[in-house]
């Protein structure tokens, strides 16, 4: 599968695995996969009669040997190992089935995604070939993925979390294609030097590659890279940017750019910030005081922990709120629930109490906060009126910034972290201890609510979360003040 993404990645995976640096988001995906795998074993083997082959204990060769020994026993096998054509693979689930009086096997690959992807199809085709060529009588092949519409009923009942797609005919019929991949992959691995493959969109498709930092550092950088152009969506512009190793922004034809992209290009090449001060003031002129500045932190689990929740549902557990009074005084309040219980109800009640009855509530990218508040309103009818009233008061600072301001240092991004250094250099995130972004906040929350987390560590994580979320809303105050000044 590494070869299918990039031949250079395959070579590095085999010969220089020490160069791999997985991001926090990649690690979170790995963790979700492990959690879903554990639940899958409970679903497919409810009586616990199956065998789990632990690579850390058995080693690769030991797991493959143990698989051969287990096949005659007709018990479910998890992480069954196969080897054929100098390729080793491990199947998530191998279940015995009866076919025409004989024992055959049904293979299920478990994925933490919410649908079947093209690379899943490649994966199971490879697994199927290796299993059959190593002597497994394979009758069926399926991919099990998460049903995003499913709701957890509680008490550890995860039946229905996974749904299957039967790929038997497709997977078993792609042997010729898979054999070609294997032959090509071995040719790459046998090379004395890594293939010369430049970085591009494949570095993050279908997975974020842990070798991207290594590869990109060895390419000649553009003086002013065209990669800073925002929201590349048209096929023509995407093809142009993919046509060379280091495309200069100056070389991108204006005819391929929309108005915002042309502004980014002009500002970047001139080095002069764009600021439509009058337009920004007009955009914010209609709202008075008191003014509120709000930011949420949320967590999502592939496998829901609380009854009534869906897989990957965004669950708010923390907010920070700055209030600018009529007199100009700035006050701060916050809410954070680390009890380990469902934080939704307490969050909703605290939010209603903190936001008062009137005054605009400024956020950055309003769709996120609006959706979370409306979800809470639907879940808690007694709070629905108050929560819906908050939604009508939400004001989005992001489009105001995007329409009226751009600085070369933003490098094509209007995220609050890219924007803030250009308007309030004293406010930054790098100096924060521990949590510095939303992904880190989610990870810190998950660690803090773990019953095994020591008290001192939980208190440290609590302080980090509070400081980070407060910095977010203080940043909103700075953006609002800047746009109105």
What does this protein structure show overall?
The structure is a single chain. The chain is α/β, with parallel strands linked by helices and 485 residues long. It has 2 domains: 2-189, Lambda Exonuclease, Chain A, CATH 3.90.320; 257-485, Nucleotidyltransferase, domain 5 (2-Layer Sandwich), CATH 3.30.420. Helix content is 44%, strand content 17%. The chain has 18 helices and 13 strands. The chain has helices at residues 2-5, 7-15, 24-44, 55-70, 118-133, 168-172, 175-189, 212-216, 235-241, 259-270, 277-284, 344-354, 366-379, 381-393, 398-404, 416-423, 438-448, 455-484, and strands spanning 51-52, 77-84, 87-99, 102-110, 138-146, 162-166, 274-275, 291-299, 315-324, 330-336, 361-363, 394-396, 405-406. A 6-stranded mixed sheet has the order 1-2-3-4-5-6. A 5-stranded mixed sheet has the order 10-9-8-11-12, with helices on both faces. Strand 4, helix 5 (118-133) and strand 5 (138-146) form a beta-alpha-beta unit. Helix 12 packs across helix 14 and helix 13 (366-379) packs antiparallel against helix 14. The longest helix is centred in the C-terminal third of the chain and has 30 residues, at 455-484. The termini are far apart. The mean pLDDT is 94. Residues 292-415 form the DUF2779 domain. InterPro entries: DUF2779, PDDEXK-like_dom_sf.
Helix content: 40-55%
Number of domains: 2
What is the makeup of the main sheet? Answer: 6 strands, mixed
Low-confidence stretches: none
Strand content: 15-25%
- Rg calculated over all Cα atoms: 27 Å
Mean pLDDT: 94
CATH architecture of the largest domain: 2-Layer Sandwich
Numbering strands along the chain, what is their spatial order in the largest sheet?
A: 1-2-3-4-5-6
CATH fold-level label of the largest domain = Nucleotidyltransferase, domain 5
Structural class: alpha/beta
The 3D shape can be described as: globular
